[in-house]
Structure formats: C-alpha cells, structure tokens
Amino acid sequence: MSANEALLTLEGWYTYHNFRTINWEKWRAASEQERKAALDELHSLIRTWEANEEQKEGSTAVYSILGHKADLVFMFLRPTLQELDAIKTAFNKTRFAAFTEAPYSYVSVVELSNYVNNPGEDPKANPHVRDRLYPILPKWEHICFYPMNKKRDLQDNWYMLTMQERQEMMRSHGLIGRKYAGKVKQIIGGSVGFDDWEWGVTLFANDPLEFKHIVYEMRFDEVSARFGEFGNFLVGNVLNSESLESLLEV
Ligand code: VOV
C-alpha cells in the first residue's frame, strides 16, 4: 500500500444549491398582476420538481436563508449535470428570477468515501448505499450548508497520510456522526473539480441547535480539528408552497 493511496469514492446524484436574494424594492414596485404572474410561474416550476421527486428521478428542497448572504436556497439533486443546467436555465427564464439575484451557488455530486466498506461487496447493490447516493432530501425544519476542504499544509497534509491513518480518523468521525442519527441528516457533496472547495456539506435537522452541537463536537475530533478548513455557513428554515407565498407577500 503506497503512503498516499488515493481513495475510491462512490458517486450518486449531482447536486446544485441555488442561493438567491430577493430584490424587495423591485418586488414591491411590481404590480399585483406582475407579482401574481411571477408566483404562478414559480409554483408551476415547483410542481415539476415535486413530480420529479415522486418519480424518484431526483430530489429538491426549498428553504429560506437567514442573515444577509441569501434569502432563499433551492437545492437540487439530479442524475446528470445536463438536468441541473436545464433547471438553472428554466429558473432564470421565469419572471420571478428577475426579482432575485444569485449571490452564491454550489455544484457537487453526492459522495460516499470508501473508508468504511464491506470488502468483496458491490456497494451499489446494497440498498442502504443506494439510499445514501440517491437520497430523497428530508423536508426537516432547518438546513445548514457550508463548503470545506481538508488541509494540504506541509505539516498537516491530509492527502499525504497513509490510508490507515485516514481510515482511523474517519472511523472516529463516523462514530461522532452516529450519535446524531435521527437528529441530523448529512448529504456530503464531493466537489473536487466542480466547485471552489473540496466538499459541500448539507445538514438537515428539526432542532437548529443540533447543527451547533454536531459541528462543535466535530471540531474537537482530529480530522476536523487538524485538517478541516471551512467556508461560509448558511442556515435556513424549510418552505412549502404556502410559507413561500406568505414570505413573498408585500
Ligand atoms: C450527521 C452525522 C454524520 C455521520 C454519521 C457521518 C459519517 C461519515 C462517514 C462514515 C464518512 C466516511 C464514509 C462516507 O460515508 O463517506 C463520512 C465522510 C465525510 N464526512 Fe461525515 N458524517 C456526519 C456529519 C458530517 C459533518 C457535520 C461534516 C462536516 C465536518 C465538520 O467538522 O464540520 C462531515 C464531513 C464529512 C466529509 C467531508 C466526508 C468525506 C471525507 C473524505 O475524506 O472522503 N460529516 N462521514
């Protein structure tokens, strides 16, 4: 085994986080008719996303976002980048999009790393693995998204550790994660070659304090403490058609 053996990863659906801010000045200045037309178009787009999820051909989640970084996020999982591109374009062609700006977006692919595996098994034949690679996003109350890297400093270079060292650290990481079973659901998007960071971490929880607790607890764990580098954190509240409508009421 060479000192820096590359890890085998399993990939599932491609992911696209579309963060938007709302231009309230423009939205308020629009006539009621214009706003209704924009909302009708948005709702019919949302219905196509719901139909796609019912067919298990992808999954979508819509959340409002706190703070100044964004007002909304539309998170999409789809089998191909072409589909994600088509979603982006369809959204941008709507009247609603003209009342928004895109401060941030993130592209990745749902990833499972093979640190914890059953040798000899075809992982994609395992229904638990398939459920994690092609997940239906839980419509839990809250979402938390942040991008991250693993450090490549001379002293602390994740990519120069042996497989065994990495495996041990990931085992410890997994054990912490397991304590949050049923409380935090994680979708890890691998984004090497796709976006500015190595992973996009999306967490779902019904109690937002669980985000604080899991992220904090992981900070003390070696893999995050020594190697984790983090981008901006975004946190939000789930939206359905009615709460989206009332958020946009002026
Ligand atoms: C919600 C709980 C939770 C659980 C159960 C969990 C478990 C696991 C396991 C078992 C594995 C390895 C195998 C696989 O399944 O990929 C991973 C992998 C990964 N994780 Fe994780 N993680 C969680 C949660 C969880 C969080 C909160 C974070 C952010 C870290 C932090 O400090 O803010 C994270 C990150 C990652 C990453 C970036 C990877 C890929 C690392 C790589 O080098 O390839 N993760 N993760």
UniProtKB/TrEMBL annotation:
Its EC number is 1.3.98.5. It catalyses: Fe-coproporphyrin III + H2O2 + H(+) = harderoheme III + CO2 + 2 H2O; Fe-coproporphyrin III + 2 H2O2 + 2 H(+) = heme b + 2 CO2 + 4 H2O; harderoheme III + H2O2 + H(+) = heme b + CO2 + 2 H2O. It is an enzyme of class 1 (oxidoreductase). It holds the Pfam family Chlor_dismutase. Fe-coproporphyrin III binds at residues 132, 146-150, 173, 186, 224. The keyword NADP does not apply. Keywords: Heme, Heme biosynthesis, Iron, Metal-binding, Oxidoreductase, Peroxidase. InterPro entries: CHDC, ChdC/CLD, Dimeric_a/b-barrel. Involved in coproporphyrin-dependent heme b biosynthesis. Catalyzes the decarboxylation of Fe-coproporphyrin III (coproheme) to heme b (protoheme IX), the last step of the pathway. The reaction occurs in a stepwise manner with a three-propionate intermediate. NCBIfam families: PRK12276.1. This is Coproheme decarboxylase. It comes from Brevibacillus invocatus. The lineage of its organism: Bacteria, Bacillati, Bacillota, Bacilli, Bacillales. The gene is chdC.
